[in-house]
Amino acid sequence: MRIIDFFDRGARAYPERTCLKDEHVSWRFDEVRRLSFQAARALQRAGVRPGDRVAVYSPNGAAAFAAVLALFRAGCVWLPVNVRNPLPEGIDYLLENDCAFLFFASRYEQEARAIGQAVPSLKAMLCLDRPFEGQPDFMQWCAREDDSPLETQADTADVAIIKSTGGTTGKPKSVMVSHRNMATMLANFLALMPHEVPPVNLVAVPMTHGAGNIALALLNLGATLVFMEKADTGRILELIESERVSTLFLPPTVIYSLLAHPEVRKHDYASLRYLIYSAAPMSVDKLGEALEVFGPVMAQAYGQTEAPLLCTFMGPSEHLLTDPQQLRRRLSSCGRATPFARVEIMDDEGRLLGPNEVGEIVVRGDLVMLGYRDNPAENEQASRFGWHHTGDVGMRDESGYFYIVDRKKDMIISGGFNIFPSEIEQVLWSHPAVQDCAVIGVPDPKWGEAVVAIVEFKPGQSCDEEVLMAYCRDKLGGMKTPKRVEIWPQLPRSPVGKVLKRDIRERFWQGQTRRV
Fold this sequence. Notes:
By secondary structure, the protein is an alpha/beta fold.
């Protein structure tokens, strides 16, 4: 099935249920379906053909998501460009993927003009929320067209989305995701997170990433999607209660901010069924606190842009063990392989490893991307031995639970010893004053690389650097204790909340001819 087919299933089952909602509009499923037919015809009238690539340059919102559904209806490929990324990065992404049409929000008019001048493949642009250069806005543009059903041909093996990798460790790559990849993700989602009634999903972080994947999956069930333009922590807490939110996806950094909010224990979270955390490792101690505050609703998804969202999964019930030691161990896991993905641990020679052996996490199956667009060298590297290589170092226990040790590129070699930053970060996260942290290796004449921790404190909290080092030494021993701790007011993060270790390293490695 195609992505739009899953939306149609929800629309037929719940035509009068609210589908898309933001602070400006609230549209039913039948209204959004008719709108998708009209917008698809308008795209055709603008010269856009099936297989052409279409971008939406906008924050989260009902009209922006309706435009995404419309481009799928027209048989086009979605280019999810994130407005929080630097404009030159967005232009490069649209250029290399031959963007044919651009929807944009009026607040980004200057950026849209720059894109129009820089991307020669563009056939036209349309502003979502007001007329622009003699053209109507999105709703007026759609109103000109017939709203009867429209069918376009597309194969499940065709490219549906071309996503840019996060670029947290290097230059972003264009990942080709097919309709079949997305259908496999949805099958995993529905198998692992059942809903007895149509859910209410709060889209609080950019729909261009994991939140958008979940929104597309839930429309199949007749979900109401409530959009926030940005992840304001206080507003998230309010909306969970007022909108009776059942399903919510957040990266760990946003969950940390929620837990630090002074009003976090004053709201009602009884409607929550699944608070899905993903995109980066999470502090075990803060995960325990989240279980206490939000209840038994935490659900972990591990995946990549190249294998969307659900390679492994750990559901709410798996977060509940009575033995404290067993629970702490379990909370450090990223779950077990999902029903429609094969996940293994592999060594550098291509041998699959057994339980409790450390190697690279590899994935195989219909969840895995078609490949990186126009990048044969990276494709060959990523698909060695017939498996997709995640770049994550991990292990699997006897019960099938996977544990991520660290990114291969993040490993520190200090004094001849391999040190994984995530182990040190878990200790620092457990300190009551620490909001977030990043541990990296920096050039050192004696050790080759010295372990350095960059720490961001909770609002109103502070602590001496020597105290933090002693805290680490007590739990980790001398070898893994950071040689120094630096306090930064804020860690650099990507638009989806991942800490940009690449940017942190750059401050310490400038002028170095070797980066190891």
